[in-house]
Amino acid sequence: MAFIKIFIIFFKIGLFTFGGGYAMLPLIEREIIETRHWITEDDFVDILAVAEMTPGPIAVNSATFVGYRIGGLGGAVAGTFGVVLPSFIIILLIVTSLYQYRYHPKVAQAFKGIRPVVIALIIFAAFKLGVKQHWNVASAGIAVVAFLMLMLFNIHPFIVIMLGAIAGVFLF
Fold first, then answer.
1. Which pLDDT tens digits describe the chain residue by residue (172 residues)?
2. Distances in Å between the alpha carbon of 43 and those of 15, 18, 28, 98, 146?
3. Residue among 65, 68, 67 at smallest CA distance from 56
4. What's residue 146's pLDDT?
5. In whole angstroms, how far apart are CA 121 and each of 85, 92, 134, 155?
6. Is 131 exposed, middle or buried (0-12, 13-18, 19+ CB in 10 A)?
7. Per-residue CA distances from 117 to 104, 121, 123, 162 (Å)
8. How far apart (Å, rounded) are the C-alpha atoms in residues 31 and 38?
9. Alpha-helix runs per DSSP H in the chain
């Protein structure tokens, strides 16, 4: 029964989130931490760190790790399949029906309206995670340096994450 609940929760998250994995994070947080209390906020932040480091989309990785934390291997499969299935179904529907309307002005206008909402969801997720971070001078310094490495020097995110892990070992 737990696997079905995990599947349904992540299916809903996958079905009602546009904009990719980062836009899903507030929904995952609300459903898994605030509503169901299946994991703690600290666990979620740790899961996000691992999900970001591992290959693949962050939403799929997060669903896999959260599912595993809740229900072991079966929970991981249920979470992963739940979050991926809606996108698969939606893409099939788009390919079969919306493709013929791709140049219709109303479709283009709808996507222009969705884009700012997706950006707001991503900013909201970053803000919520930032508020929950246990900030001190060292962690703020790591964040600033990481941001500068990404923005100014275009260093690959994986390298920045690894350097952050190394800094964490030495600073904490």
1. 689 999 999 999 888 877 677 778 888 888 888 899 998 888 888 888 888 878 888 888 888 989 998 899 999 999 999 999 998 898 888 777 776 777 888 888 888 898 898 888 888 878 887 877 788 999 999 999 999 999 999 899 889 989 999 999 999 8
2. 24, 25, 13, 40, 22
3. 65
4. 94
5. 21, 25, 22, 25
6. exposed
7. 21, 6, 10, 31
8. 9
9. 2-15, 21-29, 41-53, 58-96, 105-132, 137-151, 157-171
Give CA–CA dist 150/5, Å, rounded: 38
Distance CA(95)–CA(89), nearest Å, equals 10
Cα separation, 6 vs 81, whole angstroms: 10
pTM of the shown model: 0.61
User: Each residue of 76-105: b (16+ CB within 10 Å) or e?
Assistant: bbbbbbbbbebbeeeeeeeeeeeeeeeeee
Q: Which residues contact 21 (CB under 8 A, 6 or more apart)?
A: 57, 58, 59, 60, 61, 62
Asked if 13 contacts 31 with a C-beta cutoff of 8 angstroms, the reply is: yes
